[in-house]
């Protein structure tokens, strides 16, 4: 018999897939996996999936890592070490570690779960929530789990509503009037419309809910299929659509909005342009993503840092930041900063100018430098007088310039620029 206070979330675990590089972020992921990329001044991308799970009441989590995982693992150890086993709380980090054979790493998203079946079994859970660790959004997962139980589905798939002409970039679903999935298509040229609205398509968020006993059996069967790619979107979900019951869950039903009537916020920050835009949008007067919401906080590793400091007040040497986010430990010394986001321990020097700049931690900006529409990677030292963002053709000789005109600056790029001077 179910206990009165036995929430579905207490019988569930979150399994976060965080092993991908995110190659579209170019050199920003040369030394870290995409989920470990910094975001929003203080957090990492993976913090959003983990925070959603925690805020939803889920206290059992696992994170599967693979590509250059050290930064991600260190962040989780420092920022997510508050779980206590004596309270039946866990956060396990599960690197690809040749657990099946000496020459086999994680070969697909489903395989990452399959290789850890024994660990998941030890949790004693009833439901499992599969999450992508590389998107920015707020969502109450317990509402999705409750819908899964209510419909009796074999799998429930979290879905975004996107314009049909843009849906070819996603895994998309055709559904009936009851949101039962009738077909699951990976990046189709002609996406299906929705019942009652042929201009919109349901796209997969890479979020799935299963009863663990059901998924466990599915994974065992899939592991024996030589032709399978052992992938949720490519193999597991289409099989269930054809042979079982797959249900679509609309993100709009469980998203956590920043204000009543606000649109549902979800971002794939997988390109330089999208990453830069999502960060710069936080400088807006009323940003769609509310990082100030104490009812649904984004938890992270809180680096000890003193307050931000602004110094000098002369006509052409004034430390100011307008429509910007400036994190702790920053020293803005005689620099003019506009519509920019500075992470922890950024130091800028006199007569420099930053506009629409996303500056990652521990960056130093030299005197008279001018940076416009840029992303500056962690630890970069911008030389005195460097100008980036005003001449794309010249910038492209040394830096990565995106299709949208955003320039990425990394340590090797600055070294090449300096050597050419």
TrEMBL record:
<keyword id="KW-0119">Carbohydrate metabolism</keyword>
<feature type="binding site">
    <location>
        <position position="204"/>
    </location>
    <ligand>
        <name>alpha-D-glucose 1-phosphate</name>
    </ligand>
</feature>
<dbReference type="InterPro" id="IPR029044">
    <property type="entry name" value="Nucleotide-diphossugar_trans"/>
</dbReference>
<comment type="function">
    <text>Involved in the biosynthesis of ADP-glucose, a building block required for the elongation reactions to produce glycogen. Catalyzes the reaction between ATP and alpha-D-glucose 1-phosphate (G1P) to produce pyrophosphate and ADP-Glc.</text>
</comment>
<feature type="site" description="Could play a key role in the communication between the regulatory and the substrate sites">
    <location>
        <position position="66"/>
    </location>
</feature>
<keyword id="KW-0067">ATP-binding</keyword>
<feature type="binding site">
    <location>
        <begin position="186"/>
        <end position="187"/>
    </location>
    <ligand>
        <name>alpha-D-glucose 1-phosphate</name>
    </ligand>
</feature>
<dbReference type="InterPro" id="IPR011831">
    <property type="entry name" value="ADP-Glc_PPase"/>
</dbReference>
<feature type="domain" description="Glucose-1-phosphate adenylyltransferase/Bifunctional protein GlmU-like C-terminal hexapeptide">
    <location>
        <begin position="306"/>
        <end position="409"/>
    </location>
</feature>
<feature type="site" description="Could play a key role in the communication between the regulatory and the substrate sites">
    <location>
        <position position="105"/>
    </location>
</feature>
<comment type="subunit">
    <text>Homotetramer.</text>
</comment>
<keyword id="KW-0321">Glycogen metabolism</keyword>
<dbReference type="GO" id="GO:0005524">
    <property type="term" value="F:ATP binding"/>
</dbReference>
<keyword id="KW-0808">Transferase</keyword>
<dbReference type="InterPro" id="IPR005835">
    <property type="entry name" value="NTP_transferase_dom"/>
</dbReference>
<dbReference type="GO" id="GO:0008878">
    <property type="term" value="F:glucose-1-phosphate adenylyltransferase activity"/>
</dbReference>
<feature type="binding site">
    <location>
        <position position="171"/>
    </location>
    <ligand>
        <name>alpha-D-glucose 1-phosphate</name>
    </ligand>
</feature>
<keyword id="KW-0320">Glycogen biosynthesis</keyword>
<dbReference type="Pfam" id="PF24894">
    <property type="entry name" value="Hexapep_GlmU"/>
</dbReference>
<dbReference type="Pfam" id="PF00483">
    <property type="entry name" value="NTP_transferase"/>
</dbReference>
<feature type="domain" description="Nucleotidyl transferase">
    <location>
        <begin position="14"/>
        <end position="283"/>
    </location>
</feature>
<feature type="binding site">
    <location>
        <position position="106"/>
    </location>
    <ligand>
        <name>alpha-D-glucose 1-phosphate</name>
    </ligand>
</feature>
<dbReference type="InterPro" id="IPR023049">
    <property type="entry name" value="GlgC_bac"/>
</dbReference>
<keyword id="KW-0548">Nucleotidyltransferase</keyword>
<dbReference type="InterPro" id="IPR056818">
    <property type="entry name" value="GlmU/GlgC-like_hexapep"/>
</dbReference>
<comment type="similarity">
    <text>Belongs to the bacterial/plant glucose-1-phosphate adenylyltransferase family.</text>
</comment>
<dbReference type="GO" id="GO:0005978">
    <property type="term" value="P:glycogen biosynthetic process"/>
</dbReference>
<protein>
    <recommendedName>
        <fullName>Glucose-1-phosphate adenylyltransferase</fullName>
        <ecNumber>2.7.7.27</ecNumber>
    </recommendedName>
</protein>
<keyword id="KW-0547">Nucleotide-binding</keyword>
<dbReference type="InterPro" id="IPR005836">
    <property type="entry name" value="ADP_Glu_pyroP_CS"/>
</dbReference>
<dbReference type="InterPro" id="IPR011004">
    <property type="entry name" value="Trimer_LpxA-like_sf"/>
</dbReference>
<comment type="pathway">
    <text>Glycan biosynthesis; glycogen biosynthesis.</text>
</comment>
């Amino acid at each position: 018999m179910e206990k009165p206070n036995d929430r579905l979330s207490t019988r569930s675990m979150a399994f976060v897939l965080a092993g991908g590089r995110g190659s579209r972020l170019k050199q920003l992921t040369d030394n870290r996996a995409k989920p470990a990329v910094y975001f929003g001044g203080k957090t990492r991308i993976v913090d959003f999936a983990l925070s959603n799970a925690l805020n939803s009441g889920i206290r059992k989590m696992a994170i599967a890592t693979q590509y250059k995982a050290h930064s991600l693992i260190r962040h989780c150890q420092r920022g997510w070490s508050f779980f206590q086993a004596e309270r039946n709380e866990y956060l396990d980090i599960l690197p690809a570690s040749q657990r099946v054979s000496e020459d086999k790493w994680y070969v697909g998203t489903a395989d990452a779960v399959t290789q850890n079946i024994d660990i998941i079994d030890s949790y004693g859970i009833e439901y499992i929530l599969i999450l992508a660790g590389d998107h920015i959004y707020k969502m109450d997962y317990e509402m999705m789990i409750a819908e899964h139980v209510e419909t009796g589905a074999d799998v429930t798939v979290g879905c975004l509503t996107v314009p049909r002409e843009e849906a070819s970039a996603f895994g998309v679903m055709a559904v009936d009037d009851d949101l039962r999935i009738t077909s699951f298509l990976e990046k189709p040229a002609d996406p299906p419309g929705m019942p009652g609205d042929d201009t919109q398509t349901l796209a997969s968020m890479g979020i799935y809910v299963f009863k663990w006993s059901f998924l466990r059996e599915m994974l065992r069967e899939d592991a024996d299929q030589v032709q399978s790619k052992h992938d949720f979107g490519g193999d597991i979900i289409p099989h269930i659509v054809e042979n079982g019951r797959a249900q679509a869950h609309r993100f709009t039903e469980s998203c956590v909005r920043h204000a009543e009537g606000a649109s549902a916020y979800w971002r794939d920050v997988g390109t330089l342009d999208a990453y830069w835009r999502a960060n710069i949008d936080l400088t807006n007067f009323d940003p769609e993503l509310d990082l100030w919401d104490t009812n649904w906080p984004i938890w992270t590793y809180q680096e000890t840092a003193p307050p931000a400091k602004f110094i000098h007040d002369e006509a052409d040497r004034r430390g100011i930041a307008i429509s910007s986010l400036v994190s702790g430990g920053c020293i803005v010394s005689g620099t003019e900063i506009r519509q920019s986001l500075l992470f922890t321990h950024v130091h800028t020097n006199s007569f420099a100018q930053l506009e629409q700049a996303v500056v990652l931690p521990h960056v130093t900006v030299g005197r008279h430098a001018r940076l416009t529409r840029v992303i500056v990677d962690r630890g970069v030292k911008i030389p005195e007088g460097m100008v980036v963002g005003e001449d794309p053709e010249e910038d492209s000789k040394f830096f990565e310039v995106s299709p949208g005109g955003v320039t990425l600056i990394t340590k090797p790029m600055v070294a090449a620029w300096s050597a050419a001077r």
